[in-house]
From TrEMBL:
Positions bound to Zn(2+): 83, 158, 403
Protein name: Probable M18 family aminopeptidase 2
CDD domains: M18_DAP
UniProt GO BP: proteolysis
Gene3D superfamilies, per the entry: Aminopeptidase i, Domain 2, Zn peptidases
E.C. number(s) listed in UniProt: 3.4.11.-
HAMAP family: Aminopeptidase_M18_2
A molecular function GO annotation: zinc ion binding
A GO CC term assigned to this protein in UniProt: cytoplasm
UniProt family annotation: Belongs to the peptidase M18 family.
Length: 431
């Protein structure tokens, strides 16, 4: 697939995925359209050779897998891991604020967000709403306002002359978005959600909205930019870029090997949840895929996980924030991430294997080590490796502005990552 076509597909995926719930829905629909069968964890599974399946948990995490040809499972699984969540602003349970004649919603910062870029953006609202219908049953539905309905205005420089010398953002007082003028009777978020639910799901008969998980997001669509269209800018590249690359690689694989894609929620806040990488989701699925304990251990020891999560490209204005010998470039291929303190799970053998894969796929490859005097982020790689005992390599597409409301990648790097992961899913032998 030409990189322009692939990037448009990535842009469409990101646009349809403003929250982890929507990302999981988008992934599911593409897999179902490709012939994957949806499984329910509450049911008995009858898995077949050469089968293609997907299973969801919490509607925000997903595992898709192919069982491969006869004997493929016993030879080991080729697993790719990514995450569906991104730093954002989440609406509080009782969020209504009437201030100076304006109606605002209180928000909580989710994950390690760069907060300054959230100001002066056209924001919309999306997420999951749980309600009681007119028959007394509980139901949940996804909603997405899509249009700009809110903004967080900056304070004028005339009222804060030192702002360019450093702005300390108070998450409690500075971030509540403005949605409208205050009106009588007092505006109510739950009443607004009933209206939105009925617009998006006309056949619903709603008695009362009981709760919700809603996030604000930037409505600006993804774009390819630069004089030579070298760059790709979008919200939530960390880590929807990797989810999309894993999906495309899985759908394009030759179906002979046992392959698995796991996209989990809550990575940005430590992965410790029922549907996060530090929960039992993947282990539960593998136990049903390989029910006999000793056979499962043997298969896992023959398996390998590629943990795909974006990497830090060297910024031309802040090059001193990188180790001089480890500054990944945009459009120079996926980055192998290494940390001696196991913040990344890469070791010499798994790194060598991924380098070999990239060579086989005709893809350039880079490496990243954080400066020795700086702290290091982490991924689902070490978590999954420690829970399963599976060999792991941490990789990712190089990007700028990680955890901003809008991030920047090289326009060729999504294609490079897809090619490397497809080569992995089709590989005859693992290390």
């Amino acid at each position: 697939m030409p990189h322009s076509t692939l990037n448009q597909d990535l842009a469409d995926f990101i646009q349809a995925s403003p929250t982890p719930f929507h990302a999981t829905q988008s992934l599911s629909q593409r897999l179902l359209d490709a012939g994957f069968e949806l499984l329910d964890e509450r049911d008995d599974w009858q898995l077949k050779v050469n089968g293609s399946y997907l299973v969801r948990r919490n509607d925000s995490s997903l595992i898709a897998f192919r069982t491969g040809e006869p004997g493929a499972l016993e030879r080991g699984l080729r697993m790719v891991g990514a995450h569906t969540d991104s730093p954002c602003l989440k609406v509080k349970p009782q969020p209504e604020i009437d201030m100076q004649g304006l109606w605002q919603l209180g928000v909580e910062v989710y994950g390690g967000a760069l907060l300054a870029p959230w100001f002066d953006r056209d924001l919309s609202l999306a997420g999951r709403v749980t309600f009681r219908d007119c028959s007394g049953q509980l139901q949940s539905r996804l909603i997405d306002f899509k249009r700009p309905i809110a903004v967080i205005p900056s304070l004028a420089i005339h009222l804060n002359r030192g702002v360019n010398d450093g702005l300390a953002i108070n998450a409690q007082t500075h971030l509540p978005p403005v949605l409208a003028h205050s009106l009588e009777p007092r505006r109510d978020l739950r009443a607004l959600l009933v209206t939105q639910l009925q617009q998006e799901h006309p056949n619903l008969e709603i008695d009362q909205v009981l709760d919700y998980e809603l996030s604000f997001y930037d409505t600006q669509p993804a774009s390819t930019l630069g004089l030579d269209e070298d760059f790709f800018a979008a919200a939530r590249l960390d880590n929807l870029l990797s989810c999309h690359a894993g999906l495309r690689a899985l759908l394009d694989s030759d179906k002979r090997q046992a392959c698995l894609l796991v996209c989990t929620d809550h990575e940005e806040i430590g992965s410790c949840s029922a549907c996060g990488a530090d929960g039992p989701f993947l282990e539960d699925v593998l136990a049903r895929l390989l029910p006999e304990a000793e056979s499962r251990i043997r298969a896992i020891q023959r398996s390998l996980l590629v943990s795909a999560d974006n990497a830090h490209a060297v910024h031309p204005n802040f090059a001193d924030r990188h180790d001089a010998n480890h500054g990944p470039q945009l459009n120079a291929g996926p980055v192998i991430k290494v940390n001696s303190n196991q913040r990344y799970a890469t070791n010499s053998e798994t790194a060598a294997f991924f380098r070999h894969l990239c060579h086989q796929a005709g893809v350039p490859v880079q490496s990243f080590v954080v400066r020795s005097d700086m702290g290091c982020g982490s991924t689902i790689g070490p978590i999954t490796a420690s829970r399963l005992g599976v060999r792991t390599v941490d990789v990712g597409a190089p990007t700028f502005a990680m955890h901003s409301i809008r991030e920047l990648a090289g326009s060729r790097d999504p294609g490079y990552l897809v090619r490397a992961l497809r080569e992995f899913f089709n590989s005859e032998a693992l290390i």
